[in-house]
């Protein structure tokens, strides 16, 4: 099983649709794997300007630390966005009533995006028949006004 995200850093304008492209390859296509998208808020910032894309060192190392998770999960908001098995998509409670779905094999369609959508999105693919390899990938989404 191999899971990858084509564009792991995305910047989107407020109220515009976004497609996070998660792709997977599995040695055992049947039964269909379960695809889960999970949202994780960015780590709380301490003493920074609040600009995730420009904060920190010129090489971006501080930005990467803030965005990618140098804080425990208990310090951030975590919620299930959606799951898909076969053709059935189930939205998490927070996303019901919004234009959110999983399209294709594992692509997350968010639209229109809101302020609270900035964060990390984890695409996890679970197959009961293919337990080898990497089963998740992470995308960072920053929503600008």
Q: What is this structure, in a nutshell?
A:
Helices cover 6% and strands 41% of the residues. The protein has one helix at 61-68; strands at 2-5, 9-13, 18-20, 22-25, 34-40, 78-85, 88-91, 100-103, 107-110, 119-126, 136-144.
Terminus-to-terminus distance? 37 Å
Radius of gyration: 16 Å
Number of extended strands: 11
N-to-C series of helices and strands: EEEEEHEEEEEE
Give the strand line-up of the largest sheet: 2-11-10-5-6-7
CATH superfamily: Immunoglobulins
Provide the low-confidence segments as ranges: 47-68
CATH topology: Immunoglobulin-like
Per CATH, the class reads Mainly Beta
What does this protein look like?
The structure is a single chain. The chain has 145 residues and is mainly β. The protein has one domain (2-42, 76-143): Sandwich (Immunoglobulin-like), CATH 2.60.40. It contains 1 helix and 11 strands. A 6-stranded mixed beta sheet has the order 2-11-10-5-6-7, with no helix packed on it. A 3-stranded antiparallel beta sheet has the order 3-9-8, with no helix packed on it. Strand 6 and strand 7 form a beta hairpin. The radius of gyration is 16 Å and the shape is globular. This is LSR protein. Residues 16-139 form the Ig-like domain.
Helix and strand layout, with pairings?
Blueprint: E1 2-5, E2 9-13, E3 18-20, E4 22-25, E5 34-40, H1 61-68, E6 78-85, E7 88-91, E8 100-103, E9 107-110, E10 119-126, E11 136-144
Parallel strand pairs: 2-11
Antiparallel strand pairs: 1-4, 3-9, 5-6, 5-10, 6-7, 8-9, 10-11
